[in-house]
């Protein structure tokens, strides 16, 4: 064993610091929070390092190997006081005048730069603030306008405001009460069994009793008492008063409570429950006692007592209010009103109120109403005017009570002299005077009130009354200039309103002058003035002010004399709300102003013909030929006139001239159609062939040729004509449909299907061809193929009303029609065919009102859709009145529909030539399903 001591028991070297080599000078143990011991001081560290350096023969370093700092560099820059500037910026306390001048210059520059950008910055901030407040409004801002409007409420309106009831927990209390009333408990079976056996005799012998002759009357009585208690509990579940509770088959009514409630209702006038009156009385009495000078409080309490039937108490309350609030006008008014049953008392109260408030116009008017004779009324009115000479209402009352016209004139003169700023008095004064004097009065009124437009309007009406309508325009021109000078010009819409008022009162010339002078006010020449004026005329027509609309359109014509739109609007106004002479005169002016307008010439000729003037209509057509030579529409209209007059030779002559001067395919179609209607098929076929030589691509000529052959029973030639047409014009779906139908008629269904496929290839996404393909399969009895084709068709044309109508009415079961119709309407918003389908569905369900509504929607949406009128008339034939049928038939004749599968097949059939609308409608109805 060595004599060397154990390492752990050896003493530590001198200046040894545990953990110093690892950079630790102390550590924390579990039992000791904080450093285990205080580390060596700086002096000890320096001494240790110097001793070790001496042993190694090196220079003594600083404590941690760094060069020692000088004392003046001990403080680091980060601990420098920012207010204590040193070095370059150190100036000490040497602050001179130059520094002050520099600071002032810099400050001025900063302020100027801030001022330059301040306006834009404040505008931007204001805009951002307004945007934020608009997007995030506060509650107080949302109700700001309502708060401001409270200032205009009168004391009576304040008094009439209802008191706020106790709404706290109201819903919860009502729910709890309802649940308590509906609470039920299950009745034990023993009680039910005992109740069912009530009154029965026990015939069996109990095994427990000795001899079988004993009866348990106690149990029977208990059962009876239990059953009775159940009935009573059930009856008690109903509320007291007028409510009724039903238990089984018996009904219990609280007769006494019902009569009591009935008496209360009669006493209150069935306006409010007694509990509400009591609560309101307590609140109002508290309000009056709290503020004894609150006039509206006394008024409210008085009315409450009057409502409760306590008239004497109400009078006492309002009397107390008069004593406590002598300056409150509403209190005196209420006192006068409630005491009108005793006229003398009411007059005394009115006199006392007027003494307290001599300037109260309402009290004077109430006192005037209490008088029974005209003389007494006038006496009180004059006393009122002595105290209130500026009251217009009092002057009006006095004038209305005066019958002598001379006295009325004198009173008006005095009134206008006293109240010079009342337009109403000046205008009324002018109306009661003779015209010459009235003109002087209006001149004086105009000087007294230069900003009044009503005086100028009255002056214009005065000129019209004198028969000087030509001066009305000059008066209104002066009025506009004067009002503009005084900055009192009304808005354009307000002037239109004044013109409509004059129109309503019969001052037509004044209304026209107002429109001429003011209709362009506020509109620039660059604006769309024409459209604006057309809309103004439309609005006036909607309000029934036709003279105003006529004046607006007349002014628009004077500004836009070459606008056919304005002329048509004016002609439509005369047609609907004018006379025939005015209409023809308007159209004459229109064609003279726009001689190159085809639509105006056609309208003029049609209206002349409908007016029963065929000779003049022919003259109009002749004049139109001079202005528009070679116009096919004019020739066709001339032909229609001659056909209507049974002048077929003249119609043929017109068509011949048209074929020579305005040769178009339409002229040849018209010529062939006329010959076809007259029964000359050979001539019609010849005209068609001549037309096809010039226009081989006209699908209408090809279709007419095939139809002529069909009518001649030449199906092979008709099929050839349609086939040639499909090759000449492959973009005409009608030719493919006609060809497929004639092939189907001859039994070649496969060829018909192939024809439709070829047409669909040439005309993709065409609803007519797709629908015809579906119908072909349906007629052939192949419903699965029809449904498959319909599914593909709706994918290609999902917004086709024709396809949806075919699917709903022919491919869906009756129970599925309504859901499919709803789906179709969602995809196709406005389609008359769908509307008719919906109407037919409601018709089948016997919901006649809804069916009529949807039929009306269909014909209003598209009056040119003839099938809508046909189904509507068929519906009315079964469920309509004679008046309704006549109305719908007249509207259909006026609309002159041209489209619709059933309707077109009827009106284009030569057999129906020259038949009336009623006859055509009957034929079309017979063809419907």
TrEMBL record:
Location (main, coarse): nucleus
SUPFAM superfamilies: TPR-like
Keyword Kinase belongs to the record: no
Domain of life: Eukaryota
Listed GO biological process terms: spliceosomal tri-snRNP complex assembly
Record localization: Nucleus
Span of domain PRP1 splicing factor N-terminal: 12-170
Chain residue ranges for the region called Disordered: 14-135, 193-212
UniProt KW Nucleus keyword: yes
GO cellular component terms, A-Z: catalytic step 2 spliceosome; U4/U6 x U5 tri-snRNP complex
Compositional bias segments (type: Basic and acidic residues): 39-50, 103-114, 122-135
Keywords of the record: mRNA processing, mRNA splicing, Nucleus, Repeat
Pfam families in UniProt: HAT_PRP39_N, PRP1_N
Biased composition (Acidic residues): 71-84
Subunit details: Associated with the spliceosome.
Protein name listed in UniProt: PRP1 splicing factor N-terminal domain-containing protein
């Amino acid at each position: 064993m060595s004599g060397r001591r154990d390492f752990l028991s050896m003493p530590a070297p001198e200046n040894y610091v545990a953990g110093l080599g690892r950079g630790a000078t102390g550590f924390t143990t579990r039992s000791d929070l904080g450093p285990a011991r205080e580390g060596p001081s700086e002096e000890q560290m320096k001494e240790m390092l110097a001793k070790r350096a001496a042993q190694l023969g090196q220079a003594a370093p600083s404590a941690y190997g760094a060069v020692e700092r000088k004392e003046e560099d001990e403080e680091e820059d980060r601990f420098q006081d920012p207010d204590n500037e040193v070095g370059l910026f150190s100036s000490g306390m040497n602050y001179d005048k130059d520094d002050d001048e520099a600071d002032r210059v810099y400050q001025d520059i900063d302020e100027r730069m801030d001022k330059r950008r301040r306006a834009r910055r404040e505008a931007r901030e204001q805009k951002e603030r307004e945007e934020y407040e608009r997007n995030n409004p506060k509650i107080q801002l949302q109700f700001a306008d309502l708060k401001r409007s409270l200032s205009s409420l009168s004391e009576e309106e304040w008094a009439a405001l209802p008191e706020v009831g106790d709404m706290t927990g109201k819903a919860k209390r009502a729910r709890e009460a309802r649940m308590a009333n509906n609470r039920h408990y299950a009745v034990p079976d023993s009680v039910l069994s005992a109740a069912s056996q009530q009154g029965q005799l026990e015939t069996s012998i109990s095994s427990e009793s000795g001899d079988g002759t004993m009866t348990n009357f106690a149990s029977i009585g208990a059962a009876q008492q239990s059953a009775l208690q159940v009935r009573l509990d059930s009856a008690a579940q109903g509320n007291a008063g007028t409510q009724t509770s039903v238990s089984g088959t018996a009904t219990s009514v609280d007769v006494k409570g019902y009569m009591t409630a009935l008496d209360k209702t009669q006493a209150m006038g069935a306006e409010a429950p007694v509990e509400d009156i009591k609560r309101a009385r307590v609140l109002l009495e508290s309000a009056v006692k709290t503020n004894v000078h609150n006039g509206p409080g006394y008024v409210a309490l008085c009315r409450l007592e009057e409502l409760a039937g306590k008239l004497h108490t109400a009078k006492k309350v309002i009397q107390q209010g008069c004593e406590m609030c002598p300056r409150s006008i509403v209190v005196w008014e209420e006192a006068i009103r409630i005491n009108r049953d005793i006229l003398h008392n009411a007059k005394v109260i009115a006199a006392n109120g007027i003494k307290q408030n001599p300037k109260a116009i309402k009290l004077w008017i109430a006192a005037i109403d209490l008088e029974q004779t005209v003389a007494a009324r006038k006496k009180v009115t004059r006393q009122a005017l002595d105290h209130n000479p500026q009251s217009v209402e009092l002057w009006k009352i006095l004038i209305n009570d005066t019958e002598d016209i001379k006295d009325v004139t004198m009173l008006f003169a005095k009134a206008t002299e006293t109240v010079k700023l009342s337009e109403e008095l000046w205008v009324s004064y002018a109306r009661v005077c003779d015209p010459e004097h009235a003109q002087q009065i209006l001149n004086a009124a105009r000087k007294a009130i230069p900003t009044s437009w009503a005086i100028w309007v009255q002056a214009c009406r005065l000129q019209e009354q004198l028969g000087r309508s030509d001066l009305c325009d000059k008066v209104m021109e002066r009025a506009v200039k004067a009002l503009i000078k005084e900055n009192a010009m009304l808005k354009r819409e307000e002037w239109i309103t004044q013109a409509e008022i004059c129109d309503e009162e019969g001052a037509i010339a004044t209304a026209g002058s107002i429109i001429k002078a003011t209709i362009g006010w506020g509109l620039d020449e660059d604006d769309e003035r024409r459209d604006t004026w057309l809309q103004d005329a439309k609005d006036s027509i909607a309000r029934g002010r036709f003279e105003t609309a006529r004046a607006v359109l007349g002014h628009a014509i004077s500004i836009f004399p070459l606008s056919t739109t304005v002329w048509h609007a004016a002609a439509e106004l005369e047609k609907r709300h004018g006379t025939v002479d005015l209409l023809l005169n308007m159209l004459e002016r229109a064609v003279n102003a726009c001689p190159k307008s085809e639509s105006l010439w056609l309208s003029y000729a049609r209206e002349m013909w409908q007016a029963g003037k065929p000779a003049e209509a022919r003259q109009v057509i002749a004049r139109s030929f001079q202005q528009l030579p070679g116009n096919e529409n004019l020739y066709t209209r001339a032909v229609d006139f001659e056909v209507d007059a049974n002048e077929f030779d003249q119609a043929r002559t017109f068509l011949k001239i048209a074929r020579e001067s305005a040769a178009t395919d339409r002229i040849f179609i018209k010529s062939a159609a006329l010959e076809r209607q007259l029964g000359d098929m050979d001539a019609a076929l010849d005209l068609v062939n001549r037309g096809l030589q010039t226009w081989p691509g006209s699908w209408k000529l090809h279709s007419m040729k095939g139809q002529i052959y069909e009518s001649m029973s030449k199906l092979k030639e008709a099929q050839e004509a349609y086939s040639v047409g499909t090759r000449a014009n492959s973009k005409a779906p009608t030719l493919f449909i006609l060809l497929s139908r004639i092939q189907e008629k001859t039994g070649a269904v496969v060829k018909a299907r192939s024809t439709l496929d070829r047409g669909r290839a040439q005309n993709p996404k065409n609803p007519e061809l797709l629908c015809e393909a579906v119908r072909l399969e349906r007629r052939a009895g192949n419903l699965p193929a029809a449904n498959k084709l319909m599914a593909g068709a709706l994918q290609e044309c999902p917004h086709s009303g024709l396809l949806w109508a075919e699917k709903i009415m022919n491919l869906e079961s009756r129970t599925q029609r309504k859901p499919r119709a709803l789906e179709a309407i969602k995809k196709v918003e406005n389609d008359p065919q769908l509307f008719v389908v919906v109407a037919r569905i409601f018709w089948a369900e016997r919901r006649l009102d809804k069916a009529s509504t949807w039929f009306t929607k269909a014909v209003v949406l598209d009056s040119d859709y003839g099938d809508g009128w046909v189904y509507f008339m068929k519906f009315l034939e079964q469920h309509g009145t004679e008046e309704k049928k006549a109305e719908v038939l007249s509207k259909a004749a006026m609309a002159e529909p041209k489209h619709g599968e059933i309707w077109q097949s009827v009106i284009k059939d030569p057999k129906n030539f020259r038949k009336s609308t009623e006859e055509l409608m009957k034929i079309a109805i017979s063809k419907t399903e």
